Amino acid sequence: MNPNERGPPPFPPGGFPMPPMAGFPGGPPPGFIPPPIMPPGPPMAPPFGMPPPGFGFPPGPNPVVPEIPKDSGKPPPVENDKSNGSDESKEKKVEWTEHKSPDGRTYYYNTVTKKSYWDKPDELKSPAERKLSQCPWKEYKSDSGKVYYHNVVTKESRWTIPKVLEELKAKIEEDETDKEKPEEARSTTPALPAEQNSATIPMPTSAAEVTKSTTPPPITNTKSALDQAMAATLAAISVATPPPRADEDSNSNLSIPSRTATPDPKISYKDKKEMAEAFRNLLKDKDIPSNASWEQAVKLIVNDPRYPQLKHFSDKKQVFNAYKTQRRKEEAEEQRLRAKKAKEDLEHFLMTTDKMHSTMRYYRCQETFGHLDVWKNVHDSDRREIYEDCVFNLAKREKEEGKARKKRNMKQLATILDSMTQIDHRTTWQEAQQMLLDNPNFVNDADLLGMDKEDALIVFEDHIRELEKEEEEEKEKEKKRRKRQQRKNRDAFGMLLNELHEEGKLTSMSLWVELYPIISADLRFSAMLGQSGSTPLDLFKFYVEDLKSRFHDERKIIKEILKEKGFEVEVSTTFEEFATVVCEDRRSATLDAGNVKLTYNALLEKAESREKERVKEDQRRQRKVESAFRSLLKDYDVDYTTDWSEIRDKIQGEEAFRTLSIEADRLRVFKEYQQEIEEACSHHHTRSKKAKKNKKNKKRSRSRSPTPLSPRTLRFLASLLPDLSTKE
Where is the composition biased (Basic and acidic residues) (predicted)? Predict the structure, then answer.
């Protein structure tokens, strides 16, 4: 593939596995020529009179289909002023062919350069695809199928679509919509009377537009729905107006007498589109309803001078039907809006009137508000739904107001109790009630007088608890001072442990027994004795555990130091050498000596394991080489009488001889091989007899061998030995 082609991002966001790469693994490599199953030859020629695949008529006015002479045996060529200008682009498109790789992915082959590419070439891209290819943000899919976006410039990945790409896609869709509107308008051409067959009729510019002609134009929000429907109808009948006939010209000069002496002003239109627009305005001005028949509508519009301007009945009927359809939609929408407005007015009325409350029944509302228009304008089923919603909202509002009132009363009562100095922690609730009745702030507040007794008791209990807390504060001060001193003693003991750690005496491998003589001699240890809470031993254990918890992080730092220094721990590496290399780095100042030792032990174990594996691998390789050398000796029919110097000259050119590079190993293997051959020859005839004899002797010796003693029996006999020696 072309190295300049961009591939997918290195990875999707959030750690998802990256999608298939655009490189050649799994697909054709750079310069790949498709195999015979995917011939890269030129594409099939399109049918006569049709553009090649991917090509259409250029934008602009619709091509005109000229009249076909009756005697002509060939179809007339389609006129297009810009068709010759695209020959060069067509040739470039023909150079590219599309194929499928064995794994199902699509790639593109250039028949001129003989190269294959994963990405779609610019010559085959649509205008929308070209615009998207210029954006730095590209769309990909993760292995799970989730879409994410990657910026090929900043290398940034994200799950949400970037604003730049979103705006670009929206602009492309808007351009395509604007481009399709005139095509759809042209494609809805109705059947015309026979007298207009000689007029120029717009034809669809491509097969795609023929398909579009069977569907109505889309309705957008830029105009009213009625205007859009009429615009589609006008576009459908926008054909060239035929020249007037002679008899029509002669009749047009005749004037129709009217009820008044003043003749109607002469109305003229350029084309049939304006005539249809005038007829639509006539229907709209007369406010023709959607359920009116054609005969009823004609009675209302026949005397208008705009009525006869649209000559043919089929055109008038078509505009009338389109108007009725849209008028029906508008009337339904108006009815819906009126019903919605009536519901909103009723809901607002019920929520704001003073006569309505959350416990009021529906029949009571019917009796109270049934004579009002705001109630009668809504259907009964809708009224019930609105009533239920209002009752729910009123109950919610009343509940919130009750909570706010309760909160205010409790806060106000607490303020009054705080201001009454005669109340102390020994005052009872009965005494407090009498004191409150003598307080003017309490008596003059109507809300407080109507306050719930339970809420008032809760406030009083909270106030008594505060007074009791203040009474006990003095007792707590001494206790707090004692706790503060104990905390200072613990902090001082912690500083002692820090000093021992900085001096290297306390590590993650230290024991309390080892450091007790040093710790017990310090006054900070003596100050800890006798106080509650953590003991000196507990603090020592916590400190050591904290050092051990840092082991994994410090081991990473030590490995980074060794990697930067290029130092590797071998079997022969001593701890002094290891510590010297680590201490040369300034990061070692924060390391614990015990963790350094533990890291050294772990790395040394790995080195020993690697050494064992290496020895095993060498032994395995040596056995393989010796086995090949034995096979070589066997191929040359070496026996126990063959001389080494004689056979050496014959096999020194063999690969197995050179692989076993040490001469002593060659000679050793040679002698071992001769010894095996000699033993095989000497025992060839007597093997069966000796085997039977050995088997018989082994069975006999097994039957005569004593039963081994258990460990318990051996210990018992050992305990008797001193007694036996004493008796002797």
Answer: 68-103, 172-186
